[in-house]
Amino acid sequence: MHIESSSHGASTRSSRSAKPLPLLTACALLWSAPGFSQSPLTIGQAVEQALVKYPSVRVSLEQVSSAAAGINLARTSYLPRADFLGQVNRATRNNVSGLLLPQAVISTISGPVLPDDRLTNVWGSAVGVLVSWEPFDFGLRKANVEAAEVARTRAERAVALTRLQVATAAADAFLTILAAEQSVWAAQAGVDRARAVYQVADALVKAKLRPGAEASRMRAEVALAETQLIQSQQSTKIAKAALAQFLDSPSSGLSLAVGPLLETPPAEPLPATGLQQHPAIQEQAAAVDEIKARERALERSYFPRFNLQGTTYARGTGSHADGTTGGSLSGLGPNIQNWAFGMSVTFPLFDLPSLRARKEIEVHRERAQLARRDQILRDLQAQAEKASASLEGARLVAANTPIQLEAARAAEQQATARYKAGLGNIVEVAEAQRLLTQSEIDNSLAQLNIWRAMLGVSLAEGDLAPFLLKAAR
Question: Does one domain contain both 125 and 157?
C-alpha cells in the first residue's frame, strides 16, 4: 500500500502489513526500482534511483574517469618520443657569417657565404625523424604516475562522499513526505471535528439556546483548522517536489510505500563503523596523500635529464656551393642523407630556487589539508553525539505521545459532552480540539522522528546500509 495526500488511517494501517520486496544487494541494501505509475516507491528504491539519476553523482564519476585518464597520461612519459618533419620551401640563398642569438623569428640558412647579395631563389626540401628516449630519470616519472594514481583515489573517495550525501538527502526527503502526509491526516480529522461541533453550536444558536458569539467562535475554529489543513497539504507538495528533484520524475505521480516507517523501530543500536572510515575523512586523507605525492615529484625534479637520441634526415636544395643554381625543379626532392646517434644531458641549474618555492607551497597546502581533516573529524564527532542524543530523545517522546494522545482524546470527548449538555462553553471545546489535533500530529510523527534520528546517526557514521536494512524489514 502507499500513502497519498488524501490517505486516511485505514490506508496507513493496511500499508503497515505490506510485505517488503526482496533485497537486491547486501552491501547497498537497496531495492529494484519500478516505474512510479506501477507501484509505490520504497525508501530503498528512492535512494537507489537518486544515486543513479542525480547529476552530482554523475559529475563525481566523470571526475574519477578523468583522473584515471591522468594516470595513463603520466605513464606515457616512459615511451620514446618520435618527431617527424617534412618541408618544401622556395627562398633566396644569401647567407651571412656571424652570431645570431636563439630566437624564433629569423630563419636559419646553411651553406657558404656568397660574394654578392642576390635575390635569386631556389627550391629547398627536407624530411627527417628524431627519436628521443629517457633511459633513467631518478624516479621522476614514477613519482608523477603515483601522484596521478593518488588523484584518482581521491576522486573515487569523493564519489563515495557524494553518494552518501545524495542518499541521505533522498531518504530525508522521503521521511519528510511521510511526516507531511501524517500531518494532513491529523489536520483533516481536526477539520471534521470542528465542523461537527460548529453544526451543534449553530443549531443551538438558531434555537436561541446559546449566544450567537459561540457559533462565530466555532466558525473561526473551523477556518483555523482548514488553514492548518491547507498548510499541511502545501508542505506535502513541497516535500514531494524535493524528492522528485533527486529522482528526475514529476512529483504529481509520486506515491510512497510506508513499510515499517510508521512503527517504532527496535531499540537495538546501529552498528558503528568508526569515524575514521567515514567517506569525508577518507576523501580528506586522500587529499593529503595527493599533496605528498606532488612533493615527492618535486624532490625528483632537480636532477640531470638524460636523453638517448637518434635521427636520420635528408635535404635537397637548388643552390650549389659555387654560387650557381640547378634547374627549375632542382631541390624539390631531398637527395642528401645524414644520420646521427647520441645522448644529450640537460640540467636545470637555476631551477632550484623555484623548486624550493613550489615545494614550500605544497608544504603549506599539506598543513592546511591536515587541519581541515582534523576539523572534519571534530565536526563528525559532534554530529554523532547530537544524532545519538536526538535518537534517545525521539524514543522517549515516542513513548510519551500515546499517553498525551489518550488524555487529549478523553478531554475532547468530555468537553464536547459537557457543551452538548449545557454544562460547558465553546472555549473549552475549542481548546480541547486544538490539543487533540496537536496530540494526533505529535503521536503520528513520533515514530518518524525516531527513523529520522536513526538516519542522522547513520550519516554521522558514514554508512546508510544499517538504516536501510531496518527500513526494509
Answer: no
Predicted TM-score (pTM) of the model is 0.73
CA distances from 357 to 20, 149, 315, 360, 402 (A): 61, 24, 46, 5, 68
CATH, residue 259: 1.20.1600.10
Tally of structural domains, the chain: 2
Q: Is the dihedral of CA 276, 277, 281, 283 positive or negative?
A: positive
Mean pLDDT by 10 residues, the chain (473 residues): 36 36 37 48 86 85 85 83 91 86 87 82 92 89 89 89 90 89 85 82 75 78 86 88 84 80 76 79 91 90 90 89 82 89 90 89 92 92 90 90 88 83 77 86 87 90 86 77
Q: Structural domain of residue 421, as residue ranges?
A: 9-71+143-291+358-471
User: Is residue 393 in a domain?
Assistant: yes
**58 and 147 part of one domain:** yes
